[in-house]
Write a structure and sequence with these properties.
This protein has 153 residues and is α/β, with parallel strands linked by helices. It is 22% helix and 29% strand. The termini are far apart. The mean pLDDT is 84.
Length: 153
């Protein structure tokens, strides 16, 4: 049975949703993506009993990798070796998700930008300063935009 928007709205009261549980991304090159999210961005990869039981066999086969963000949100990477970008130019690629943003302390922002540069990650936009803080945008190995941002000082 497919729930309509109205039925779903009547079941969920305002404020029932607690937090983002996980974010799942399809990736073409699992090793490049593991290096990007783990080694470069510094997210911790789940291992052993931390891996959800429902994904354990896929992780063991190298088809899935799970990372945890500092706030506890899980980032699942699903290996899709035949994945093609919607467009070879990531500036034109259509997707319903625009970017994944990570927050960092203002005093560490410039260091984060330098880590990107040291790892030859092309900066797509920025660093920019806005009333809401500073941000820098770049692409993961599959062309998905990632932002590192900080609050204003």
């Amino acid at each position: 049975m497919v729930l309509s928007y109205q039925v779903l709205k009547s079941v969920l009261a305002h404020g029932d949703l607690r937090r983002v549980h996980h974010i799942a991304l399809n990736v073409k090159d699992m090793q490049a993506s593991r290096r990007f999210y783990g080694d470069i961005l510094g997210l911790r990869e789940l291992t052993g009993s931390e891996i959800p039981e429902t994904l354990a066999s896929l992780v063991a086969e190298g088809k899935v990798a799970n990372f945890v963000t500092p706030d506890g949100t899980i980032l699942d990477l699903f290996w899709e070796p035949d994945l093609l970008p919607p467009d070879s130019d990531p500036e034109r690629a259509f997707t319903r998700a625009y970017h994944l943003a990570f927050d960092i302390a203002p005093e560490l922002f410039d260091q984060a930008v330098q880590v990107c540069l040291d790892n030859e990650i092309t900066i797509a936009h920025g660093p920019v300063s806005r009333p809401t803080g500073r941000g820098v945008y770049f692409y993961d190995p599959d062309g998905f935009m990632v932002e590192i941002r900080c609050d204003p000082v």
